[in-house]
Amino acid sequence: MGGGNFFYFLSQYLLVAAMPLYILEELHGNERDAGLAMTYFQLGTVLCRPFAGKIIDSLNKHRLLVAGSCAFLLIMTAFFFLRTLPAVFGLRFLHGAIFGVTSTAAAAVAALVLPLSRKGEGIGYFALSTNLAMVVGPLVGLLLMQYWGPSAVFFFLILGALFTLIAMICNALPSSVTRPSASFRSFSVTDLIEPRSVIPSLFGGLVFFSYGGMLTFIPLYARSLC
């Protein structure tokens, strides 16, 4: 699960660094377009994440992860061929939607698979995969853009998505973890919003409000200094 989670977040952080430069240099967009690419990704994530928990609990988790990894592969391949601003915005929205479901599913499965005696340790290692992606993704994205261009970026992402899909297919999970634990038939507001999580979520939102803007425009600022 950690490997799949690493790629899900790697694809995000790599594109956060490379996409603004790609839009300005290859698609002849402007800073506003670079910001919109990030906005569409986050919009897809925000719209899907409230439903992600219900989807994960209602479907076979292994099949969901395989389907999500397959969707990632298709989206990364589409980035390679569809090189217009409207296509990029649409793909970023789909990328965010799939990211919202698959990253949540990977975390849920990791928590269910870990033995109770080592759950804290295991979740710590699982979270480390997110931090590694945060460190490696921007570096790889900028290096690929600088020396080989956007085709190398998208080809790298296609390979990563392919390896992730193969890993998810080969990853055998116990039926007690993968089988659905709920049904779509029962649905209420609490399936979308847990009242006790509202206040912590607001604080988290304030922290990441500035974080998203900085991630998008730091590559552009660094480029202007060269």
UniProtKB/TrEMBL annotation:
It is found in: Cell membrane. One of its GO terms (molecular function) is transmembrane transporter activity. PROSITE patterns: MFS. It holds the Pfam family MFS_1. The chain crosses the membrane at residues 6-24, 64-82, 94-116, 123-148, 154-177, 198-222. SUPFAM superfamilies: MFS general substrate transporter. It is a multi-pass membrane protein. InterPro entries: MFS, MFS_dom, MFS_Exporter, MFS_trans_sf. Residues 1-226 form the Major facilitator superfamily (MFS) profile domain. It comes from the Bacteria. One of its GO terms (cellular component) is plasma membrane. Keywords: Membrane, Transmembrane, Transmembrane helix, Transport. PANTHER family: QUINOLENE RESISTANCE PROTEIN NORA (PTHR23531:SF1). This is Major facilitator superfamily (MFS) profile domain-containing protein. It comes from Acidaminococcus intestini (strain RyC-MR95).
